[in-house]
Request: fold
Amino acid sequence: MPFAILLAFTLSVGRKVMHVPGKLYGLGLGPGDPELLTVKASRILGRVSVVAVPKGGPDRPSLALEVAAPYLRPGQEILELLLPMTRDRDQRQEAWAGSAREIARRLEQGLDVAFLTLGDLFTYSTYAYLREHLQQLMPGLAVENVPGVTSFAAAASAAAWPLAEGDETLAVVPGSIAVSAMASLLDCFSTVVILKAAGRYREWVELLRRKGLEQEAVLVSRCGFPDEICSRDLDEWVDREMSYFSLILARGAKRQ
Reply:
């Protein structure tokens, strides 16, 4: 038996005998294009025993699984976790806790688990909450975090839109922010990125128009996916159905 195979077998058996828990890997997948995964993330994806992927609903496919598919190998367990997009804090906590328990069961069996998330792990991501629950369940758990390309970095490239240069300033905010707060940010920053802008898209277009900034903005939706939209005509999309994965890059007054 070749030495490398013998060593891997010995370590695997030793882990099970000693009841050593598996390792958790948090993998940022980038915005949607499988080719934007880092080399490190793709290598780990092909090695772990369990791949945990979030789903927004029981009948909705996992976008993270779709992005990761080219790097998976036969025999891996695909653990689908229901993590609904809701503002109900109790419902979110219940979903995070339940998902953490499912992952912990695999880790306690000595299996390495990779949790996948679109974009980056620690930029408006579910992963941070899930990791916290797991570390409460399993103090001392070995964790490795692998960052991913953020949606707004990829969107800026798609639109050929410099986010900041020299001494310019950049604000990245969620689409749930108050309109008054957004107005202040547009006054104070060179560039403002509005993430998950679809739910209040009309409000953001109207605000940009009032400030004379409508022509200094670009909409990017489903960046990195085959049906990506990149448009500088924001009005065209006001009455259209838009993906949850939509953002606006806007020039602030400081850049005029």
Observations:
- The domain at 3-146 is CATH 3.40.1010.10 (Cobalt-precorrin-4 Transmethylase; domain 1).
- Strands lie at 24-28, 50-55, 77-82, 113-117, 143-146, 170-174, 191-195, 217-221, 229-231, 246-251.
- The first helix runs from residue 3 to 18.
- The chain is about 35% helix and 20% strand.
